[in-house]
Design a protein that fits this description.
Number of helices: 12
Helix content: 25-40%
CATH architecture of the largest domain: 3-Layer(aba) Sandwich
Radius of gyration: 21 Å
Largest sheet: 7 strands, mixed
Shape: globular
CATH class of the largest domain: Alpha Beta
Distance between the termini: 28 Å
CATH superfamily of the largest domain: Type I PLP-dependent aspartate aminotransferase-like (Major domain)
Length: 374
């Protein structure tokens, strides 16, 4: 990636940061944008409130365009968990209904469904992991006429496995089930056309591959999903004309904006706008191709006598995340701690070391990691 892009991320100059799957670095323009909104409030109070709302709508439109969606299908939440919890609480479940998912989903994409299992009598059917992969055939075989929801991640957090979303979406639609995707490990690093993939519901957040501040969750609901759900909470922004304070019987919003309740952290949206503009300007397909080059290069130069590659590198299944497992008796935590002492930041996930480069990384970073692995 161009050096000018790397220069936007101050942390990349002093550490080898390979941990975007946990927290993405912030570019300088994003930080300036956040600060500018706070400074505006400090200096002017509510005088420029109209611009705060205008920024929110620009961010909504830009987010939607990057997902192949309509702006009216996108709402802002606090985080991914809020979005998935809203889905779990918003569907009217019946005993005997089932949810199909993957056994090793991130907890945000498990606990809402487990709660339905424990409290509503909903069956939770989980596809197993096989050698770092999800068997999509097995997952699809679990879908039947009582399946109300299929929930998977676009990119698995622990292994980087990328399932065939189009195939899963097609099978879910055949069974008349809703298809929900946790997109936090994909949005910003992998192209996503949610309507084209038959995704009905998607939840994500700003602070990983979007390189934006924490606190901006993204919830996508298409019309099919909205017809089967209801918002579990409402507020002054949930109606058609929220600024008409005297019209107390006006209709509630019927699009996804009805899932927003009140004012949000506008400074955070100022930052998110700058980060989205940066990524959109580069192009998500170009970003994805570059990240595959970096991750492929890592797999080429990895000392395979001491580490095994857990992540699938098969076409259509590989992603920007590479998980490796020590073969020399060291724990993943020990490896991550030793790398941190050498100013290299990765994550330990169970027995595995997770490596996640982004646009501010280069091939020198990958070589440095490989050379410093204990």
């Amino acid at each position: 990636m161009d050096q000018s892009i790397r220069d936007l991320f101050p942390a990349a100059r002093k550490i080898t940061y390979l941990n975007t799957a946990a927290i993405g670095l912030l570019p300088v323009d994003t930080v300036k944008a956040v600060t500018s909104q706070l400074e505006d409030v400090a200096a002017n109070g509510s005088a420029n409130m109209g611009e705060w709302f205008a920024v929110q709508e620009r961010v909504r439109a830009l987010t939607a365009s990057m997902l192949g969606a309509a702006a009216s299908d996108v709402a802002f939440t606090r985080n991914t968990s809020d979005g998935l919890a809203a889905v779990a609480s918003g569907v009217k479940w019946e005993p005997g209904d089932n949810i199909v998912s993957f056994a090793h989903e991130f907890p945000a994409n498990y606990y809402p469904w487990r709660k339905l299992r424990d409290e509503n009598g909903v069956e939770l059917r989980l596809c197993s992991e096989q050698d770092g992969r999800m068997d999509v055939e097995e997952l699809c075989s679990l879908i039947d006429g009582r399946t109300r929801l299929v929930a998977v991640s676009a990119v698995q957090y622990a292994t980087g496995f990328r399932p065939d979303l189009e195939r899963i979406g097609r099978e879910a639609r055949k069974a008349d089930a809703l298809f929900a995707v946790d997109m936090i490990q994909a949005f910003g690093a992998v192209p996503l056309d949610l309507p084209g993939l038959r995704v009905d519901i998607a939840a994500g957040a700003s602070y990983k591959w979007l390189c934006a501040p924490q606190g901006c969750g993204i919830l996508y609901l298409n019309e099919r999903a909205r017809q089967r759900m209801r918002p579990v909470s409402c507020g002054w922004l949930s109606v058609e004309d929220p600024w008409d304070f005297d019209s107390r019987e006006q209709p509630f919003l019927q699009n996804t904006l009805g899932w927003e309740t009140g004012t949000c952290g506008y400074a955070l949206l100022y930052g998110l706008e700058q980060s989205l503009k940066l990524l959109a300007g580069i192009g998500i397909r170009k970003i994805a191709a570059y990240l595959w080059e970096l991750s492929d290069y890592l797999c080429e130069i990895l000392p395979t006598k001491r580490y095994s590659i857990i992540s699938s590198r098969l076409p259509g299944e590989s992603s920007q995340i590479v998980s490796i497992e020590p073969l020399n008796g060291l724990s993943a935590e020990t490896v991550a701690d030793e790398l941190r002492r050498q100013n290299i930041v990765v994550s330990a996930r169970g027995k595995r070391v997770r490596i996640a480069p982004h646009i501010f990384n280069n091939f020198d970073d990958i070589e440095n990691l490989a050379a410093c692995l204990p």
